[in-house]
Specification:
Layout: H1 6-13, E1 23-27, H2 42-45, H3 49-59, H4 71-86, E2 90-95, E3 102-103, E4 118-123, H5 133-143, E5 144-154, H6 168-176, E6 180-189, E7 196-199, H7 217-233, E8 239-240, H8 246-251, E9 260-261, H9 267-281, E10 285-286, E11 289-290, E12 294-302, H10 318-324
Parallel strand pairs: 1-2, 1-4, 2-3, 4-5
Antiparallel strand pairs: 5-12, 6-7, 6-12, 8-9, 10-11
Helix pairs in contact: 3-4
């Protein structure tokens, strides 16, 4: 997921005197996820809001799907400016695309020259896209220098977005098994400041603890509003692959297959309502602010060097780990 402003606000809170390694890496070539920065954050981030907002305004006119018109170059320039003003020296990213600073496949071991190279590692959900998810997260840990931090954000409720969805309990276990400690574990709002919804707790009495059980009453109402807006105004997926044909399409490496198009009789009703309410809900439900949407935010600090090959992770969920003493 793209970087919320919360990334920079949280990094600005860290004591720069205690961070020896000032190099920052992003796991994935991520966009910023805000269309401006409010004046109230100017002192906190040590920035010129007018300057940065002009750059953001220009960025929003470019094509975010490629770097043909310089989108990713300008996006990275904005990120570097924010990080430099906070007190960091460099910002680079690692991804499988051609415009990242380091071409890395998270399913495979990272190069030796990248290990322990960065004081800050920003993992904004990228590791969740890897099918070898444990290695992907181990790689983000290996990038981090001793006493450095891994800033981790992920989306808790999207259906079929990630091959394997990592639960907060799972992430906390593998990080703490590899020389890290937890500095923050929170659910936050998808607003400009990333305001707190609730501190996360590692429940184990039952097999599940539903996301909405973390909400207070008004947060629950906001979440219902978010679900309502997503149903009527969210992006529509039209082209699809029939699961019954998947084995044949997969054998051809997804080349030269016939796309199927979804026919949905409710689209007419949805489009009618969308035309009526789009302008009304836009301040509360748009690309950069979806009121009621929540994000999992975890901040880990590396307190000792660790060999991931020697570590034992929980063998099941925390519920069964405790119940059966696995």
């Amino acid at each position: 997921m793209a970087y919320p402003l919360k990334v920079f606000l949280e990094l600005a809170k860290l004591d720069q005197k205690l961070i020896k390694n000032k190099n920052v890496i992003g796991v994935g070539s991520h966009n910023i996820d805000f269309n401006k920065i409010s004046k109230k954050y100017e002192k906190i981030l040590n920035i010129d809001c007018n300057l940065i907002n002009r750059k953001i305004k220009k960025l929003l006119t470019l094509n975010s799907k490629s770097n043909d018109d310089g989108y990713y170059t300008l996006n990275k320039e904005i990120i570097r400016y924010l990080l430099t003003q906070i007190g960091f020296k460099t910002y680079e990213d690692a991804d499988i695309n051609d415009f990242s600073d380091y071409k890395v496949n998270l399913n495979e071991n990272i190069p030796e020259n990248l290990k322990n190279k960065f004081g800050i590692v920003i993992n904004s959900g990228t590791s969740n896209y890897a099918t070898n998810i444990i290695r992907a997260y181990e790689n983000s840990m290996k990038l981090c220098d001793i006493d450095g931090y891994v800033v981790n954000f992920c989306e808790p409720i999207n259906f079929n977005r990630f091959p394997l969805g990592a639960s907060p309990n799972f992430l906390i276990d593998i990080f703490c098994s590899n020389g890290f400690k937890v500095n923050k574990a929170q659910l936050i709002n998808n607003d400009e400041s990333g305001s707190l919804v609730s501190d996360l707790k590692m429940f184990y009495d039952h097999k599940e603890f539903y996301l909405i059980q973390y909400f207070g009453f008004f947060q629950f109402l906001k979440h219902i509003f978010y679900e309502f807006c997503t149903f009527f105004f969210g992006r529509k997926n039209i082209n699809y692959i029939d699961p019954l044909d998947y084995h044949k399409i997969k054998d051809k490496s997804f080349k030269n297959f016939s796309k199927k198009i979804l026919i949905n009789n409710t689209f007419g009703i949805k489009n009618f309502l969308k035309k009526i309410f789009t302008k009304l809900i836009r301040p509360f439900y748009n690309k950069h602010n979806k009121s009621g949407r929540v994000i999992v935010y975890l901040l880990f600090q590396k307190i000792e060097m660790s060999d991931t090959a020697q570590k034992r992770y929980n063998e099941s969920s925390l519920h069964y780990e405790v119940q059966y003493n696995l």
